[in-house]
Amino acid sequence: MIYEIISSGFGGQGALTIGKFLAKAGMKEGKHVSWLPSYGPEMRGGTANVSTVISDKPVASPIVSFPNVLVALNQPSLDKFASSVVKGGFIIANENLCPKIPTFEGVKTISAPLSKIATEIGSEMVLNMLAIGMVIGLTDMIKYETIEADLTAFLEKKNPKLLELNLIAIKKGIDLTK
Amino acid sequence: MAKVLMKGNEAVAEAAIRSGCRLYFAYPITPQSELIEYMSRMLPKVNGTFLQAESEVAAINMVYGAAGAGRRVMTSSSSPGISLKMEGISYIAGANLPAVIVNVQRGGPGLGDIQPAQGDYFQATKGGGHGDYHTIVLAPASVQEFADMASDAFDLADAYRIPVMILSDGMLGQMMEPVEFKEAKTDEEIAKLDNQHKDWCIHPKEEGEAPHHNEINSLEIDPRVLEQHVLDLEKKYKLIESKEIKVEEYNINKDNDMVCVAFGTASRIVRSAVDQLNAEGKNIGLIRPITVWPYPYATIANALHDKVKKVMVFELNLGQMVEDVKLAVNGKVPVGFFGKVGGIVFTPEEIKAKIEENL
Amino acid sequence: MQVIATRPKSLTDLQFTYCPGCLHGVAHRLIAEAIDELEIQDTTTGVAPVGCSVFAYKFFDMDMAEAAHGRAPAVATGIKRARPNMQVFTYQGDGDLAAIGTAEIVHAANRGEHISVFFVNNAIYGMTGGQMAPTTLPEMKTSTSPYGRKTDDVGFPIQVCELLNTLQAPYYIERVSLLSPADILKAKKAVKKALTYNKEGRGFTIVELLSTCPTNWGMTAIDSLKWAKEKMVPYFPIGKLRDRGEE
User: Fold this and answer.
1) Global pTM exceeds 0.90
2) Considering its fold, how many domains does chain C have in total?
3) CB spacing of B215 vs C77 below 8 angstroms
4) ipTM of the shown complex
5) What is the distance between the alpha carbons of residues B91 and B133, in angstroms, rounded to a whole number?
């Protein structure tokens, strides 16, 4: 299997972190992974996006031109990348910041008011975990347990409250795909 | 050691520290900032010296001083900063000093931009500074290789007393991939490394040691002496050319329809295209020079089997490596080229189309 | 037989290659004598510049480095950081230190780098044949200021010690001259003080030594001394600008 993911949003929304957690979980599961962010002035207020590849085979090109998973946290991201998603792929969109969600034949589009749900859970910061949950719900890219273990190791002592919110958000994300 | 997910810029810094690098002098520039920042965080923890120099010029001359004192030392920069360092690199080469220089290439010329590019190939492999000299140039294609090359670079630098450049680019610097590090050298091992150059380097006279007058110098005012010095350098370069060429041959066989040549990150994009084409029944080979100086001319020449009617070169520049490929091919078949500049990286699809067009 | 004067141990047997009347030999000797007296020859290393004293790395009998033009303070920084137990000095002329190497000297001083800088100022580029230096005096004629240095065009001579004295970090800054036997004795004290502070790890020290260039000034040695006293000293006043050791 090979997953080629583009995750994109405004700088600060956590688009890069989504890719990072997915790549890290993929690595922990013994897969080949790469994570390639856009960088420079683009990141300061513009669209921050990252190409993540998770594969059974060594990753050749880390640049994703035709993703099979797109996580779009805002409208510019959707406008920029939605049309390049391959048939059989998924688009995950944040309804709160994507007023116009296009549909493409053969591409499954799932949207939810992610910003609103994140705030309801307790922090805008968990927006990215909602998206990760949706990726887990839609694909067999990574397992929930892997990311739970990773987050626990990272946050258990440092910020147990945030850990709890994160795990709630991932589970909620999974539910959103059902 | 378990694998960790890390940016190339940080991985090469960590690997350098593990290889015994305890001195690092540099000046901030994008897209290598994570490297200098990592060094500023980590070197003090191992009693190393991190110094942010007032300029690239000062940084490379600090490297010259520390290398002259016989210790493992590194600097890093990105293209415009490497241009500034070229004077110092020429002096380091002329004075037979070991040093490691990392170039995280970006678009040029001039200020260019900060996106990945390979436009410094000529500068890195054909000199860059003044005079007859070479630096060993290693071109990594993954974060793991970027890290591994840090220790290779120090070993080569010490073995030949030569500046070694790791020629990466913004993509490798910014990209995260899993990386497994070698065991860090112990303080004892580092002390041994620091002592290996005592027959020529600047150091205090120790008890029992004869008084010494070691000169760290590239000046030879007498033409006959300078001639001999440059010829001695050439001997060293010939030895390196005979022993240190590294190259990856990917699906090279006697039934190849075409041979492609690419280095560094560009080679990964080409490999994607080659994989797709081979899955469709074609037989395309890829040669990836790992050392771009010394250059694997023979490997390319030997890959020109009967069915190969053309060699295609792919680079993120306007064809700088094509000259070396043409030297290797020596007119036997045409050499084609496709490249992107300005910090634009070609896609596997573009490469695939170019290969098909030229089959 | 009693030996009353001999070659300092810290100089090699090589004969100096300087012009008749040049004071580089005197400056070399003062540094070497101070190193001998402080018994630090085995732990001292120097960095030679580009300029007339480019061969200084051959004359001092210890490990020496030859730097690119103006870069001696950066090279010395690298050596000092790599070998913190050594005493590191640079020997630089006015073109080297105050023109092409301005950034390096200012920042080495500003870091309080633990090195000693011996700065020989003779208001001219000697080795390349008498061109205008950053310290060339107003109206002074050189091969690249044939009508005299015009300050409205190329500015005024740089007073290096005064410039560095605006920084917080330097430990010791003094200007001396090599223009008379009495001045030379005072210069010796300053050089020795800088190296003493260096040995003690106190911080950045610089001694500017006012000197001459009979060859490129087109004068006899005697006239050059007289000219320097009359013209240079008023512009580059002799004296201690800072001595943290005596505060």
Assistant:
1) yes
2) 1
3) no
4) 0.95
5) 10
